[in-house]
Write a sequence for this structure.
């Protein structure tokens, strides 16, 4: 593809269509937050012994968050609506302490609240970036038609 005679033009067009912006400042932190959520049960002392169901829950949600981060990095133009999914996962991670688990200790609660809050805020950032990309694309397409 790099040898294609129109490669430069296609890159420039892609940059114009996406507004030249992706969500680069969100990709890595979302991925790291997802990895932490996935392994938090094994990092926080007594977590897995005291809350095995919450540990499995975190593993599944952490993998989902990491996959979303990879999607943001690889195909940002198709992930514009998934920032809201991160917000829901972040909020659910906080609520899960009391719905999936029961009688969690202070360290487990603190870990869940922090990682859930971080994921929620990163979801808001991803949503904001996606809306900005959409506005730029819409503005650009209006200029092209006039």
């Amino acid at each position: 593809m790099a040898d294609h005679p129109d490669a430069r033009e296609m890159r420039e067009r892609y940059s114009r269509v996406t507004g030249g912006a992706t969500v680069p400042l969100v990709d890595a932190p979302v991925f790291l937050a997802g990895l932490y959520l996935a392994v938090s049960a094994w990092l926080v002392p007594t977590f897995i012994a005291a809350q095995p169901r919450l540990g499995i829950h975190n593993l599944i949600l952490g993998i989902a968050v990491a996959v979303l981060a990879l999607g943001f990095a690889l195909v940002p133009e198709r992930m514009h609506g998934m920032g809201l999914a991160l917000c829901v996962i972040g909020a659910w991670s906080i609520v899960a302490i009391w719905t999936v688990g029961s009688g969690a200790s202070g360290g487990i609660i603190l870990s869940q609240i922090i990682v859930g809050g971080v994921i929620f805020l990163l979801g808001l950032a991803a949503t904001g970036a996606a809306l900005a990309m959409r506005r730029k694309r819409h503005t650009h397409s209006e200029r092209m038609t006039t």
Notes: Confidence is low (pLDDT under 50) at residues 18-22.
